[in-house]
Write a structure and sequence with these properties.
Layout lengths: L1 H28 L13 H5 L15 E5 L5 E6 L5 H13 L22 E4 L11 H7 L3
Antiparallel strand pairs: 1-2, 1-3
Length: 143
């Protein structure tokens, strides 16, 4: 699971770098309000570990990632539905759109008996540039 730790560390480091300005603003002027319950969206240390509501658990954005043992990662689906059948469909679409089922960095096969363990969800928008229109994400969220 060293690959998971490296991938998660890289993703969250990029998130904190992209979100730093918004986090400082939310500390000073208060965080955005949750569209579901009205509580400030300050779970996960004011957004450093992802955006969420501490009161009702609302996540305005979720990204589905797949990682390799080497720590390389790719986005499977942004804003995925969390239904089991849909997750399988997203994986099928992910691998159908690729030339092969091997990691682009190290060349190891991604489809094996551990494929379901190589998927993780992060409560962040990816790519990080989407942070600039975070207000639209709150309004248009499916969660």
């Amino acid at each position: 699971m060293a690959g998971f730790k490296k991938a998660k560390k890289d993703i969250m480091r990029g998130w904190r770098k992209a979100y730093r300005k918004k986090m400082i603003i939310s500390c000073i002027f208060s965080a955005k309000r949750c569209p579901q319950c009205g509580h400030p969206m300050m779970a996960n240390m004011m957004g450093i570990f992802g955006i969420a509501c501490p009161d009702c658990g609302f996540n305005p954005y979720v990204t589905m990632f797949m990682f390799c043992e080497c720590g390389a990662y790719e986005v499977v689906k942004a804003q995925p539905e969390l239904d089991d059948d849909k997750q399988i469909q997203y994986l099928k679409e992910f691998f159908d759109g690729r030339e092969s089922d091997v990691c682009k960095v190290c060349g190891k096969k991604l489809i094996d008996e551990y494929v379901e363990n190589r998927i993780f969800y992060a409560p962040i928008p990816y790519p990080y540039e989407k942070i600039d229109n975070i207000d639209e994400i709150y309004k248009n969220s499916i969660y």
